[in-house]
UniProtKB/TrEMBL annotation, chain B:
<keyword id="KW-0408">Iron</keyword>
<keyword id="KW-0479">Metal-binding</keyword>
<keyword id="KW-0560">Oxidoreductase</keyword>
<dbReference type="Pfam" id="PF02730">
    <property type="entry name" value="AFOR_N"/>
</dbReference>
<dbReference type="InterPro" id="IPR001203">
    <property type="entry name" value="OxRdtase_Ald_Fedxn_C"/>
</dbReference>
<dbReference type="GO" id="GO:0016625">
    <property type="term" value="F:oxidoreductase activity, acting on the aldehyde or oxo group of donors, iron-sulfur protein as acceptor"/>
</dbReference>
<dbReference type="GO" id="GO:0046872">
    <property type="term" value="F:metal ion binding"/>
</dbReference>
<dbReference type="InterPro" id="IPR036503">
    <property type="entry name" value="Ald_Fedxn_OxRdtase_N_sf"/>
</dbReference>
<keyword id="KW-0004">4Fe-4S</keyword>
<dbReference type="InterPro" id="IPR051919">
    <property type="entry name" value="W-dependent_AOR"/>
</dbReference>
<dbReference type="InterPro" id="IPR013984">
    <property type="entry name" value="Ald_Fedxn_OxRdtase_dom2"/>
</dbReference>
<dbReference type="InterPro" id="IPR013985">
    <property type="entry name" value="Ald_Fedxn_OxRdtase_dom3"/>
</dbReference>
<dbReference type="GO" id="GO:0009055">
    <property type="term" value="F:electron transfer activity"/>
</dbReference>
<dbReference type="Pfam" id="PF01314">
    <property type="entry name" value="AFOR_C"/>
</dbReference>
<dbReference type="InterPro" id="IPR036021">
    <property type="entry name" value="Tungsten_al_ferr_oxy-like_C"/>
</dbReference>
<dbReference type="GO" id="GO:0051539">
    <property type="term" value="F:4 iron, 4 sulfur cluster binding"/>
</dbReference>
<feature type="domain" description="Aldehyde ferredoxin oxidoreductase N-terminal">
    <location>
        <begin position="8"/>
        <end position="209"/>
    </location>
</feature>
């Protein structure tokens, strides 16, 4: 997050995240944009920060989330049973959910969200 | 349409029986696209000809289109209903989170009928519909509180729309609005009163889903091209920066902004209520509708001291736009930006349409000056140009006083001036109060013949701007008005924000529709636009709208426009020609 105060709440980043997951719409997006208790107070954006020791991966009973050296986690879909523990473990609420597949949608650290934001609310930095 | 697209699903809600059901209507969307096109068909299907607008049988229809949720700035919802203000077509468009919420909940349209026994609100979360008790919310005086109360009760944060009415809607004032996300509105023609007549305080909608496209690679490419244009094109600059109030100074310079009920087209210190002045003194934040990168919603801060307590202030955020500054500013002789904001706050608190309210207050002031109404009739208030306090008081009286004049004013100035006199300076068009452009023939003829009597029907003011350099004949003017309004039926069926009309050219729209699984040719699209326009007129006429008895308010001939005085012979000829053209379409 670079500057939450500049967020206009357009959700363009959420749609960009969906497209990065080969989808049009919002279901496959793992970004959340919420008002800070009413639009007049502005918005907060919640997005995966690529933790070094990610709680989501630790919470997975099937070891379906593999920690990547370059940041973030990778979902091994075949191992995932759709228990949703990873979603609960992320206090940033930065994991999406695909109802059709009944599996989480994990940030792939592509930076498309930051690229699509005209207000430079988000910044993508590789470790 | 792509087979699995939920667009074709219509959600029906019966408030009397507290029931809901979903019907798949692919034929409706493949023929009429969505938005305006689908809403007018659903209005014909669901609204009996001769009902009172406050009958439980009057449907509230919300419709979105195939581009909503797929492409940027396709961010609007169309609402249709029988208008309590005009007695015929009620059509209003709003952004906020509404369009994306409806699309993501999995519907192309929602039809609400019946009347709840007690105040209620409806919560639609994807396939589930809940009827919630709203007795506690009924009668809440501050317009902004209802949203925050509902926000605490419902899921879907960040994606949901919360549409609600204020005291004006509860009291069935024929020009009351529905407020969405605090700062957007279904403003015109009285949807708020239709909500009120159904004991419906609010509608919450949320959902989250993916939508299929015919070719993902092409979709992604086109999306990114459009996003870039919306961000960088000069055509969008005005909306990015000052917003629509950027129009105040140029229109004032060209004498195109109505002042003091159009008694004049000049006023000193208008620069104090310009877009530049609002931005400099008050702009506190800019926000956007869902899926729109432009962020044209300008929020001003208004700092109000407590009179009885030192060092205590209340700071409110209020959205301002050109039309509000016109109706609650120049039209009332107000040239203080702070005073305009005070009036915006009063109108927001009550849940009234800002344009109609401003024009009504202007009519009251002139009627008072001319002795048509007096102090006894106004509960002792003396209306006076530029006097904000008296206007705030009048707004409250319109909503809460039960005396005869205020009761009548709740039905607009067409009704009030028919009863008391003062018709010559009642600025109404087909019973709807005047928008803020006194630019010439295009604007006025456009308001009169637009299917919803709005400046957005055909943007006649833009036609007037062209006429400043190239004069138009009656035939050319009529042709332009009809052509523009018919094309706008396509834009509002998709449903794209009109601000992006120059980006969403016919060519771009074809590509977008193809990716959404619609294969219309250019001719077919024109034909659909024509048919929707005709269908709106069919509905109006079915409800008793008298196309043969339309005339412009006398006042508009008395004050020069941006193009000079309006010539009555010219407008008479245009009116005759437009009548013929419209009748030939029916």
């Amino acid at each position: 997050m670079k500057d939450n105060e500049k967020c206009v709440g357009c959700l363009i980043c959420m749609f960009a995240c969906g497209r990065a997951h080969q989808a049009a719409g919002l279901e496959s997006s793992c970004i959340k944009v919420r008002s800070q208790g009413g639009i007049s107070r502005g918005f907060s954006v919640f997005v995966c920060r690529g933790c070094d020791d990610p709680p989501c991966a630790r919470a997975c009973p099937e070891d379906a989330l593999i920690v990547r050296k370059t940041g973030g986690v990778l979902l091994k879909e075949e191992r995932c049973t759709g228990c949703g523990y990873c979603v609960k473990a992320c206090i940033l609420d930065a994991i999406g959910w695909n109802n059709g597949k009944n599996k989480p949608v994990i940030c792939i650290q592509c930076g498309e969200c930051a690229k699509s934001c005209h207000y430079k609310v988000l910044e993508f930095v590789r470790k | 349409m792509i087979k699995e697209d939920p667009l074709n699903r219509v959600l029906y809600i019966d408030l009397t029986k507290k029931k809901f059901w979903i019907e798949e209507r692919p034929e409706l969307f493949t023929k009429y696209i969505g938005g305006t096109g689908v809403a007018i068909r659903l209005l014909h299907e669901n609204c009996p000809n001769d009902i009172d607008p406050f009958s439980p049988d009057n449907p509230i229809i919300f419709a979105v289109g195939p581009l909503n949720g797929l492409f940027p700035i396709a961010s609007k919802t169309v609402a249709m209903f029988k208008s309590p203000h005009t007695g015929n077509l009620g059509e209003s468009h709003a952004g906020g989170r509404s369009a994306i919420a409806i699309r993501m909940a999995g519907y192309g349209a929602i039809v609400i009928k019946g009347k709840s026994e007690r105040p209620c609100y409806i919560a639609i979360h994807s396939d589930k519909v809940y009827f919630r008790d709203a007795t506690t919310l009924w009668g809440v005086k501050e317009g902004l509180s209802v949203g925050s109360l509902i926000r605490r009760q419902e899921p879907g944060a960040g994606l949901r729309t919360i549409m609600r009415i204020g005291p004006a809607g509860e009291k069935l004032i024929s020009y009351s609005c529905v407020t969405l996300e605090t700062y957007r509105h279904f403003g015109r023609l009285g949807l708020g009163a239709v909500f009120g007549s159904k004991n419906l305080k609010a509608v919450v909608i949320s959902g989250k889903r993916d939508i299929n496209v015919t070719n993902f690679k092409e979709y992604k490419q086109l999306y990114e091209e459009l996003l870039l244009q919306l961000a960088e094109s000069e055509k969008m600059k005005k909306y990015h920066e000052l917003g629509t109030p950027a129009n105040i100074l140029p229109l004032s310079f060209s004498k195109g902004i109505p002042i003091k009920n159009l008694l004049t087209n000049e006023i000193e210190k208008i620069e104090n209520i310009s877009g530049e002045s609002f931005a400099e003194k008050h702009l506190g934040r800019r926000v956007a509708c869902s899926h729109c990168p432009v962020a044209c919603i300008h929020l001003a801060t208004l700092r109000k001291p407590y009179e009885d307590e030192p060092y205590f202030y209340r700071t409110v955020y209020l959205s301002y736009d050109y039309e509000l500054i016109y109706a609650l500013g120049s039209m009332l002789g107000i040239t203080s930006s702070e005073d305009v904001l005070k009036l915006i706050e009063a109108v927001e608190d009550m849940g009234l349409d800002a344009i109609s309210t401003g024009v009504i207050l202007a009519w009251i002031t002139e009627a008072f000056e001319k002795g048509i109404i007096n102090e006894t009739m106004t509960d002792g208030i003396v209306p006076e140009w530029g006097n904000t306090e008296c206007y705030v008081e009048l707004i409250r009286k319109i909503v809460y006083s039960n005396n005869e004049l205020f009761n009548d004013l709740r039905r607009g100035i067409d009704y009030t001036s028919s009863k008391y006199g003062g018709k010559d300076f009642a600025l109404t068009y087909g019973k709807n109060e005047m928008p803020g452009y006194h630019t010439g023939y295009g604007a006025h003829i456009g308001y009169l013949f637009g299917a919803r009597h709005s400046h957005l029907d055909s943007a006649g003011y833009a036609i007037d701007r062209e006429a400043m350099t190239t004069q138009k004949t009656v035939e050319e003017l009529v042709e332009r008005i009809i052509k523009e309004e018919q094309w706008r039926q396509i834009l509002s069926s998709l449903v794209i924000c009109f601000f992006a009309r120059e980006i969403y050219t016919s060519d771009v729209i074809h590509k977008c529709l193809k990716l959404s699984g619609f294969g219309f040719s250019e001719e077919e699209l024109s034909e659909i636009g024509r048919e929707i326009y005709a269908d709106k007129y069919r509905f109006k006429i079915k409800c008793g709208f008298d196309i043969d008895n339309l005339s412009l308010p006398k006042r508009v001939f008395e004050i020069p426009t941006s193009l000079g005085f309006i010539d009555k012979d010219f407008t008479d000829k245009a009116i005759v020609l437009l009548k013929e053209k419209i009748k030939s379409l029916l």
